[in-house]
Design brief:
There is one protein chain. The protein is an alpha/beta fold. It contains nine helices and nine strands. It has a single domain, classed as Rossmann fold (3-Layer(aba) Sandwich). The strands form two sheets. The chain has a six-stranded mixed sheet with strand order 5-6-7-3-8-9, with helices on both faces. Strands 2-1-4 form a three-stranded antiparallel sheet, with helices on one face. Strand 8 and strand 9 form a beta hairpin. The longest helix is centred in the C-terminal third of the chain and has 16 residues. The protein is globular. 40% of the residues are buried.
Length: 250
């Protein structure tokens, strides 16, 4: 398998202060990878760089055989404003955006596809409920239904199972396994290491720089976890500004 994402000496940060240092490597086409590490390790920052939302301080991200329109990105729930008055069905139909754009017509078939996606995540009959009235687990199911409609080759999930119930987690993990079986590339930021060991064949252990990247059992070896914890304990939040030239993501 070739790599669908390549990281080339990638350094990321905010206001030129590095948050992720010098990562090089690749995510293979069709792979299923967990990104784990201590709080503040740069995991979410890395996903934002892959989407193109964050410009590197140094190095670059390249995509092979796909473009950024082929990415389905699920941010953390805390970053999503649910106060906007929109119902469940209309939220799911936003998954058609890439195909219809701002002015394209939504067809009856597209609405049927949205209803089928809701049924696939266990929310048949929820079409006209406002999203602000949903529980955290129900809303996460809605967002997964929207990704089903996006039909993307590259799926990025930022803490998709945080603060949701065990039944919802199990159902959404089944969707992740389905995407993997369909040869889509899935990258998920996670905290539950037992969940990672059980469901994710590959892992990137990150502590502002890569600690280990490969088969999950090897990446999560005790020595690697100890090293990640030790690095987190010695982080310097006043790290110097990165003065080396930035290169744009391709």
């Amino acid at each position: 398998m070739g790599d669908v994402i390549r990281l080339h000496d990638l350094t990321l940060g905010y206001r030129r202060h590095p948050a992720v240092h010098h990562i090089s490597g690749g995510f293979a086409d069709g792979s299923l990878t967990a990104v784990v590490g201590p709080n503040g390790a740069g995991k979410s920052t890395l996903l934002k760089a892959v989407t193109g939302a964050l410009r590197p301080l140094q190095g670059r991200v390249t995509l092979e055989g796909v473009d950024r329109r082929d990415i389905a990105y699920l941010p953390q729930q805390a970053e999503i404003d649910r106060s906007f008055p929109i119902d469940v069905l209309d939220t799911v139909m936003l998954g058609h955006w890439r195909r219809v754009g701002a002015f394209g017509a939504i067809t009856a078939a597209m609405r049927d596809d949205a209803r089928a996606a809701l049924a696939a995540v266990g929310l048949a009959g929820f079409e006209r409920r406002p999203v602000g009235a949903l529980s955290a687990g129900q809303f996460q199911r809605v967002l997964f239904a929207r990704m089903l409609l996006q039909d993307a080759r590259l799926i990025l999930l930022d803490e998709p199972f945080t603060a949701i119930d065990a039944r919802t987690t199990a159902d959404l993990l089944a969707l992740v396994r389905r995407w993997h079986a369909e040869r889509r590339t899935v990258i998920a930021v996670l905290h539950d290491l037992e969940q990672v060991r059980a469901h994710f064949p590959r892992t990137l252990l990150l502590a502002r720089e890569p600690i280990a990247w490969g088969p999950t059992a090897e990446a999560l070896a005790p020595a690697n976890l100890r090293r990640a914890r030790a690095m987190a304990e010695h982080w310097d939040d006043g790290a110097p500004v990165c003065d080396r030239g930035a290169a744009g993501a391709a």
